[in-house]
Amino acid sequence: MNELNPIAQAVAQAQEQLHLAMEAKQAEDLWWWMEKGWEDQMLEKDRMRVSDKKLGVVAAKAAMVEIERKWLKVSIGFSSFSHSEFDLFSRS
What we know:
Elements: H1 4-91
């Protein structure tokens, strides 16, 4: 029985070491998974920022086109009004 006791103790120690090693590995894997998830979230945010920036540029260009169109319409209208007013004064 004395011979079995040291063997049982060695097996118990080996099992405890294996358990501790598995816990450490699990904690390491969990940490990696959390880091990977965080990196993925940050990459997605960066992609959204780039996409939002591109959409902002497109919207700004569209707004500029609309402003130029309205400015041209007002300018032509003002120019036509000025010329017709000038014609009225020159006829008098």
